[in-house]
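Deviation from plan, reported transparently: iron/sulfur cluster complex.
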Amino acid sequence: MSLLEVSDVRKYFPIKSGVFFRREVGRVHAVDGVSLSVEAGETLGVVGESGCGKSTLARCMTGLYEVTSGKITFDGDMRRDVQMVFQDPYGSLNPRRRIGSIIADPLVIHREGTAASRRERVKELMALVGLNPEHYNRFPAEFSGGQRQRVGIARALALNPRLVVCDEPVSALDVSIQAQVVNLLKDLQTELGLTYVFIAHDLSVVRYVSDRVAVMYLGKIVEIAPGEELYERPRHPYTAALLSAASVADPDRPRDRVVLRGDVPSPISPPRACRFHPRCPKAQERCTVEEPLLLGDGHQWACHFPVEPGEHLRSAEPGLEGRAG
Ligand code: SF4
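Because the crystal trials were delayed, the predicted structure below was used instead.
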């Protein structure tokens, strides 16, 4: 059995209006039928543009959000064994609380040990993530962004979790600090045998840390594959376009930049059938009436007309109009 199984999970957020906001006038389809599994010891990267639903999926995986439908199964005690590292090392730490007490939160909530043993554990965790244990009584404002993210990582590790869901853990940090935090996460994975779900919009960071990568678009997974396979042979036109725009393009074999038409459509009324069809350079009539399923073995993609190996994908031209569903 996989460590974590996500089966046809949907998470919709109601949009309310009227007197006292009682009337539901629509729904944001943040996550819309996602299935995937996470194997023990691996890092599954999840990439996509902002608003694609990857952070909502992360919160569903950790139990922070109740799912609207579908099922999440974890091989263990989800409350203890699944922890989260948040994006914003500034906003996720209470500025009026001391670092030691912040890191100890999960131990206090789960009634672990005595005050003295918790203090020892916190100092051990601080050393583990490269913080000076003598700074136990300092406040968040006395730390740099990178150090604050180390505090967030120490807090996530307090209960010896098996799965850590990292939601854009380095995107708020200076580029010079990002590598340090990413390398710390990799070292901790080796040392502690952790499993990661690593959410990010930066494809090069995801490539560096992930064994497998899932690409999300408008609430759905459109492609999932082992990291190198996905970066070398993307089959979904959206993945190919993302890669063409990213710095991960191999300098020896530069990809022409594929320019997508328009913005990401609203998740309130996503295009019907293939959600990518209004922007897709390969869209045909079938894409507007029949939803492509995520198919394949090992390398899966959801597309009727996938990119063929060696195919030169062109930028989208005006053509098929988006059809809201
Ligand atoms: Fe493009 Fe059609 Fe594939 Fe969707 S199904 S990604 S519109 S080619």
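The beta strands are 4-17, 23-38, 43-47, 69-74, 82-85, 163-167, 195-200, 212-217, 220-226, 300-301. We consider this an acceptable substitute for the interim report.
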